[in-house]
Amino acid sequence: MINILSEITAKGGCLLLGVGPTADGVIEEEVTKRLHEVGKWLRFNGKAIYNTRITPVYRDGNVWFTADKDGKTLYAIYALPEGEKLPDVIEWKGNLPKGNMKLLKGNKRVKYVLKGDKVEVTLPKGMENEPIALSFVLKK
To answer: Is the pTM of this model over 0.85?
Structure first.
């Protein structure tokens, strides 16, 4: 669901998620679990979703991009494919950063290198296996 939310937001849309009860009026445990997971992720990474704007380059591979209202701060959301492990390095083309880049969860700085129009971000060891969001200032 986080990957779907990231894609829809990056494209300028808004996700309306409907959850219905069973015939007995009960919300199923699996649904409740998923909603709690999304809520936990948004608690740390919601800045990359809420009140954001679209960017000219809104996607490269598994990375979706949104922008803060100021248009200078960008967010890169790595949509971790289901069943895969978080890679050590995330890459994308375009949306080149300037200065520091941080993980939204934990506000930790990450190292990155620019190779022409390509960005290579090295993730810290021991991260949870979940989608991540990064913030950085766009290089003009």
So the answer is: yes
